[in-house]
Amino acid sequence: MTDTSLNDLDRRILSAIQGGFPITSRPYAQLADDFGCTEAEALASVAGMRTSGVIRRIGAIFDSARLGYRSTLCAIAVPPERVEEVAAVISAYPNVTHNYQREDRYNVWFTLIAPSAERISEILREIAGTTGIDDILDLPAIRLFKIKVDFDLTGEKADRTEAPPSTRPAETEAVVLTRDERALIRLLQDDLEPVERPFEAVAANLREGGVDADEAWVIERTRSWVDSRVIRRFGAAIKHHKTGFSANAMGAWVVPEDRVEEVGAIMASFREVSHCYERPTTPTWPNNLYTMIHGRTRQECVEVAERIRAATGLRAPRLLYSTREFKKISMRYFADGE
Q1: In CA terms, which of 62, 109, 146, 214 is 20 to 30 Å from 168?
Q2: Could you read off the pLDDT of 39-67 as tens digits, one per residue?
């Protein structure tokens, strides 16, 4: 399914819910009010995009640091003939949420999330020991400038927006959670049921597990976590290839330290940039600022990178295109019932 197979209502609803799904008792009624259709039509539109695979899931994207977890971006330099073998070793870890082949000497890039930095280091040592490759980059975020996947499916969005304030994940304070709240988090990281009252369905699931919860409590907790940024985004995760955005490039930039804050804000203002981070350098990797750029073609990605370069006055970045997706899942927080 491509962008052309989405009708006008599909595109308008999808443009809205990727940024924020209504956290109300009847979210599809809210969408119906917003887009001039019936509740049944809004529900059918979303259900159709789920069935076709355009929507992977609707649920919460949590800030791992706010839940007491640590995360990092890693890359490993793999001989071309061993890429699939090494990628399979990496993907076998439940802590690995994303695993891609990219065009570079460091050709397998993956994200790791774990309850502690020590566990991350342990996993990286295990990967090195199993594969016999110790040329691994460990690049935890120093500053986060943007995480916002917001594909323009209607042509109505501005090219640039005001960048959000930057944050430092290592300095982020974890929230204190009750047992019932952890149970709710385990459900919100799943896919909401495609029913008129999905938050009542969540509450019913909690009650079956022994949690004294009703729909109002589920909605109140979810909204409060969105407001406090424990939930970075509550919305639709989409398969961008199915909406016509088939190219993505990780731009790895070299930015003077005294300009990182200024430049990061400029980069984060570009709509086509979904992620923007400062990360540490290493002796073999001098790049310190990263932009994930999405476009319909590679040429579009190149053009966005050039616009960013012109706006910042930097040298052109290394553009690392993803060529294969080995794994892409959402992290399972508190999966063992802790």
Answers
A1: 109
A2: 999 999 999 999 998 999 999 999 999 99
58: left (phi over 0), alpha (psi -120 to 50) or beta: beta
The two tokens of residue 60 are 């919460």
In 64-218, where do the E strands start and end? 70-76, 96-102, 108-114, 136-139, 143-147
Q: What is the DSSP string of 228-274?
A: TTSEEEEEEEE-GGGGT--EEEEEEE---GGGHHHHHHHHHTBTTEE
What is the mean predicted confidence (pLDDT) over 150-165? 67
What domains are defined for the chain? 66-165+241-328 (3.30.70.3460)
| Residues noted as catalytic | 98
Q: Is the pTM of this model over 0.90?
A: no
Report helix, strand or coil for 87.
Answer: helix
Cβ-based neighbours of 215, under 8 Å, separated by 6 or more: 25, 197, 199, 200, 202, 203
Q: Which of 111, 53, 109 is nearest to 86 (CA)?
A: 109
Give 79-88 pLDDT, tens digit per residue.
999 999 999 9
